[in-house]
Amino acid sequence: MKRALLIGAAALVFTSGMAIAAPESLLPPGFDKPAPAPVVRPVAPVAAPTAVSPAQGGSVSSPVVQPLPGVAASGVPGAVLPSNFPSIAQIENMSPDEIDELLGLKPKFDIPPGARRSLQQVGVISREEGGFPARAVAGQPAALVRAALGATKHPLVSRWGHILLRRTLASRLDAPQGMDPVEFAALRAAALNRMGEGYVARALVQDIDSSNYNSALTNAAFDAYVLTGDIVGLCPVARLKGDIRKDGEWKMVQAICRSYAGDGRQAARDLDIALSRGTAPRIDVLLAKRYAGAAAEGGQAVNIEWNDVRELNPWRYSLAVTLGIEVPDSLRNGAGAWYDRMGALSPALPLGIRAASADRAAGEGILSSAAMVDLYSQIYSMSEIEGDVAQRAALLREAYVAQDPDDRIQAIRDLWGSATPDYGRLVLTAYAAARITPSKDLEADAPLLIASMLSAGLDRNAMRWASVVPQGSAGWAMLALAQNRQDSTVGQSAVNSFFDDDSSAGQRKAQFLLAGLAGLGRLDEGDTRSLSESHSVNLARESSWSRMITRAAEANNPALVAMLAGLGMQGDKWEMMTARQLYYIVRSLDRVGLSAEARMIAAEAVARG
Predict the structure, then answer these.
(1) For a disulfide at 341, which of 3, 196, 379, 502, Cβ 3.0-4.6 Å?
(2) What distances in angstroms separate CA 135 from CA 166, 174, 188, 557, one per listed residue?
(3) Which of 233, 193, 191 is nearest to 337 (CA)?
(4) Which 3 state secondary structure label does DSSP give 122?
């Protein structure tokens, strides 16, 4: 319709004039008769100007006429059009967005002025909801915050470190001094995406009006919406700022949004052009066509075949999952951690597939213990689900409700599966472990039971086992770190006993114990020096990162300390953490009032080291 109107307007521009029929009067009889004209006294005629020929040296006079708007003084319509104004043929090939751009109809805002949101505090959770104070980093240098968040490019090795950093990044915060609030939001959302927290990142970018988006925030939003399988969520930005990206995936997003806006035919044409020009890989365009076809005017059916596809990427996996298209195991197996993080949370996937990915998500801190129990409760209630996942659901129920305590502990052991279980399984059994009565008969199970409880922050339940575990054991080491007593100190001999019995690679667990106790102030300075020298552990060596986190702690800035702690805990395995890093993290967190997080991180390090 818009194209037809523009073509008609252009046609009028290129003609010299047209006849217009007089409108029929709608007034009752008599109302359209004009009143008698007033009598005008005759006025002496004015002599008409004498025309002067060019030969006489003058100029030819002409009536002075005020030109109509949009019409040149010569009276020829269209003379004021720009020289590069498209022809009718070019207009016919334009998309609706291009016509809007040509006519100046493309809006700069998609929200009325009274509904636009302030950029002063952007985030998801306020201080009253558990977030950090709004001014937490407002007085900090922009360069420091930018470096801390921009350099956090990987997930964190610590589950509790992940939980702390997620809470920090999701808080409703003012931007640091000298930083654009949109840039600050983009940095936080990008870091959340890299941590696998797509839903939190999506909520964060949705707190900003589309008209305020820049390139960095658009990229972070794109990653968040792909990670959550919500491509249509990008439509407000794609429609308002279509030229902010030029890549093939963005062009497919625009076509999808056009289809969901009611222009399915144009969307189908755009995707056909993308397919013919190789704008994106064939399978990606076909999935986009299938996604766009789910709208009211979808167009033709699209057959998806994986025969020639050699690998997955986030775009094709996200669309396939959202559309309910089964991805071959040959592509899915070993594809990478990103796909597990998405699979654990995607409501479009079968529960059995979600459970297969849930262990990683729980171990990293994306899923809580309660969320894991909810997932397996749904699996247990669905009789059509069979296999290992159904058996695990039955074992989890047994771990909670079995009448015989021996049956409950055996069910927990079966869920762990080995002497060194996946940490996600310890998260799964945390609340069931808290229901086990401490007993000397279960001394061999105590370390894993304690680690399981501490994975969900159940430190009070874990401390009931203090009388069961012997000094110098793994269970004792975790409790020495996790206990809430500020005045508790540990003797040098007990730490030496743990070193003697530690069989971990490079005695990493014992080194983490030493670093954690020193960071929490539970070792005398003399004992710390003596133990560090005797076991070749250098906790005092400084770096630019250690100096930054120390100064942040001295300034009593918990949010900045949490960001810098996340920077120091990057990695996919605990072998990438050093005792020195753990020492500075635990000490800094404890100094700024985040002692609970410091204790849980230190205990987790011993459990997983």
Answers:
(1) 196
(2) 17, 6, 16, 10
(3) 193
(4) strand
Contacts of 217 (CB under 8 A, 6+ apart): 182, 183, 185, 186, 189, 205, 208
Tokens of 463: 């401390």
Q: Measured between alpha carbons, how far is residue 356 from residues 180, 183, 424 in Å?
A: 41, 36, 11
**How many degrees, rounded to 5, is the angle at CA 17 between CA 11 and CA 20?**
105
Residue listed under structure tokens 């996200």: 318
Nearest to 186 by CA among 143, 220, 227, 152: 220
Among the listed residues 585, 588, 590, 556, the one whose alpha carbon sits nearest the alpha carbon of residue 569: 585
Determine which helix (DSSP H) or strand (DSSP E) holds 341, and give its type and residue range.
Answer: helix 337-345
How many Å apart are CA 459 and CA 441, to the nearest integer? 21
Q: Which residue(s) pair with 71 in the sheet?
A: 77
CA gap 465, 479 in Å, rounded = 8
- How much is the pTM? 0.83
Helices and strands, number each (H, E), in the chain? 31, 0
Structure tokens at 445: 């199970």
Q: Is 250 in contact with 238 (CB distance < 8 Å)?
A: yes
Segment holding 150, helix H or strand E: helix 142-150
Token pair, residue 165, equals 């950093």
Phi, psi of 394 (to 5 degrees): -65, -40
Local mean pLDDT, 10-residue blocks, the chain (609 residues): 45 40 50 53 50 48 52 49 72 64 59 77 95 95 95 96 98 96 98 97 96 96 97 94 94 95 90 95 96 74 91 96 94 93 95 95 97 97 94 97 96 94 97 97 97 98 97 96 86 94 94 97 94 94 96 96 97 93 98 97 97
Distance CA 426, CA 240 (A): 47
Helix, strand or coil for residue 125?
strand
Q: How far is CA 603 from CA 170, 204, 218, 338, in A?
A: 25, 31, 39, 27
Between CA 358 and CA 382 the distance in angstroms is: 18
DSSP annotation of 293 reads T
- Is residue 463 within 8 Å of 488, Cβ to Cβ? no
Alpha helices in 524-594 (DSSP H): 525-534, 544-554, 558-568, 579-591
Cα distances (Å, whole numbers) of residue 174 to 139, 167, 216 = 9, 15, 18
Question: How many CB atoms are closer than 10 A to CB 330?
Answer: 11
Query: What are the structural domain ranges in the chain?
Result: 1-7+85-107, 229-345, 470-609
Distance of alpha carbon 458 from the chain centroid: 29
**Contact status, residue 199 vs residue 345, Cβ threshold 8 Å:** yes
